[in-house]
Amino acid sequence: MSGILAQSKGAAGEQLAADYLQRQGLKLIERNFRVRGGEIDLICQDGTTTVFVEVRSRAGADYGGAGASITAAKRARLVLAARHWLVRHGERPCRFDCVLIDGPQGEKLEWLRDAFAAD
Predict the structure, then answer these.
(1) Which of 25, 68, 90, 110 could crosslink 100 through cysteines, CB 3.0-4.6 Å?
(2) Which pLDDT band holds residue 102 (cuts at 50, 70, 90)?
(3) Region of 61 on the Ramachandran plot (φ > 0 left; ψ -120 to 50 alpha; else beta)
(4) CA 11 to chain CA centroid, nearest Å
(5) What is the pLDDT of residues 14-65, one digit of tens each?
């Protein structure tokens, strides 16, 4: 998948994840925060905790599914972007969550709260 198709699929997955998280009581505060070297798909508020959310979508499990695509390098880019966001908005309690969407129609959605630490 390339170009616009990949972007629209990614945007659809992010919207699915945002809708799901909001139904779970989180408040969406920002989408697609980017800095040089990193990006955060969704930034939410869960009570007093800021939640940095990585959304991963995969149509099939050919390469281990959505969860397998969150590598150490990807986590490092998320942490870098989160640090930039916190500098701009003030230090506060935070965590990193992942929303994994598997299946051609997004049939399986899994929310991993506190998926990794910012080592």
Answers:
(1) 110
(2) confident
(3) alpha
(4) 11
(5) 999 999 999 999 999 999 999 999 999 999 999 999 999 999 887 655 555 5
DSSP helix/strand/coil, 117 = coil
Q: For the chain, which domains are there?
A: 3-67+74-99 (3.40.1350.10)
Q: How many residues does the chain have?
A: 119
In angstroms, the Cα distances linking 100 to 20, 78, 85 are 12, 16, 23
97: left (phi over 0), alpha (psi -120 to 50) or beta: beta
pTM flag (> 0.90): no
Whole-angstrom Cα distance, residue 68 to residue 64?
Answer: 5
45, 29 contact by CB (below 8 A): yes
Closest CA to 52 of 69, 71, 72, 34: 34
